[in-house]
Amino acid sequence: MNHPLRKVVIPAAGLGTRFLPATKSVPKEMLPIVDQPTIGLIVDEALRAGATEVIVINGRGKTAIEDYFDRSYELEDTLLRKGKQELFEQVRKISDSVSVTSLRQKEPMGLGHAVLAARNAIGDQWFGVLLGDDLFDSEEPGIAQLARVAAKTGKAAVALMAVPDDQTHMYGVAAGVRLPDGNLAIAKLIEKPKQGTAPSNLAVIGRYLLPPDIFDILEQVKPGAGGEIQLTDALAVLAQQGRLLGVTLQGERHDAGDRLGYLQANIAYALKRPSLREGLLAFMRKVSQ
To answer: What are the pLDDT digits (tens) for 167-178?
Structure first.
């Protein structure tokens, strides 16, 4: 990788069934973390990493995501007329700070299929993938950490996290050789292995830095776990070619696609707000007695 990160893909076509009935009308990526939608925090991470173009892979009923990143003339005019300059600037910044392209995944055929839908928009460039319900709270953006490794080594990079053994069946799981720099030279990658068969406890989580030829590989991937086109199966090809590294990211990860993880993320981000911290801590002490 001999050029900086410029484009990222955010797959956001999932149905969000774990958050029903709320997600019957609200995309799960638009559920708020305090007062920002989850996808807003993820796009902010991409921007801080230097990305200038975001490709969102959407599904039916998710036009709210497009609307969020679009101009809202009526709202902006109302804020200005009421003298709410600070709020106006916050709202305007959302639409002005990034170029967002929305593409439709017409069938829910898996993460690999969603990434493949971005092929024409990405072109012949390295790119990042940030899952729409995985949050990384870190000084150096999570995707930037992967981009730095890819730029140094010329290899694709994925984020890894150690998980309990009884949870490995929920993830893509990697195994390989630990390198002197602490990264993992991935030799094997299995999507959602049966309990007791995982090659390690190192799970691939929602950040990827990928080369453009991943699209050629995805074109050849046959349906895997769940009958879907799995990105993990394409990554396994890169691993077999010696072109895939696993990186343990510095920072705190929140699974906002899980109800408990979502609540924890809200608390963690709220505690970072001076205006909310003391009141929230007092409430938590009260209810935990």
So the answer is: 888 888 999 999
